[in-house]
Design brief:
It comes from Paenibacillus filicis. The chain has 9 helices and 8 strands. It has about 300 residues and is of the alpha/beta class.
Amino acid sequence: MKLSLQKAHRLFKDNLPSYSASVDEVRQLTADKMWGTLPIASDLITEEVDIDGMKGEWQIVPESQEDRVLLYLHGGGFMFGSIATHRGESSELGRAAKARTLAINYRLAPEHPFPAPIDDALKAYSWLLDQGYPAKHIMIAGDSAGGNLTAAVLMRIRDTLTPLPAGGVMISPWIDLGLTGETYITKEAVDPVNTKEAIQKLADNYLNGVSPAVPYASPMYGDLRGLPPIYVMVGEAEIMLSESLTFVTRAALAGVDIRFRSWPAMIHNWLCCHSFLEEAREGIDSAGAFMNELYTKHE
């Protein structure tokens, strides 16, 4: 294993807390010891915004075009993570897309279980429309639980007859909260980030008694017809691999313009390691190319 990938493994294996710790301890430890060690570009400008009582942040780099927006939904199992923890990844995705990134602090479980994060993400999208951004100039992206939210929000936007965005990017999406995929067993020995036991606890926190088969909770089970183009990106060393394959197949059968790419040996949300891992930088650029294609189509 090359040194940069070993470093990515250590980032998670050495710093992920035990889920037997308190919620506050898990949030603090992941923020400080894991994501807090990742660098932020020196040319990034941030601007805090209030979205009807929810904290948002504009992330602007020299490449950002005024009329392009990336709405970014961070991961963290619906229990931890924030604008700050994912600032490096979200802003670099915006740079690759030549867009302004809007990141949000959606409400977290267990204090705010399903469907609170979906409601908050939809509120942010509606706020962007109210600010005058055309729907087709907006992309929605997220990693892990944020990949779940990306799909769920696209479904909600469609179901409420709100104008659809240009498309979505789902990075290592966690979209089957029933954990039924075969790779929860076959990949557990090689995934340095997630275990089925830990993911089950996060699912229970978020669902709060709701069935994991509810489509907005587990978009893998959703009606995907009529959704905009979606790019699904996944590492081949992660336990969530099989649900992405199922989602992509179902989306294709539903007539969605679905793009898919898997990266050999890559771990869950490897894109956060873009500062030192070549495949992560490649992933950022690949997502940027997809978003640029859709932005250009609607300009």
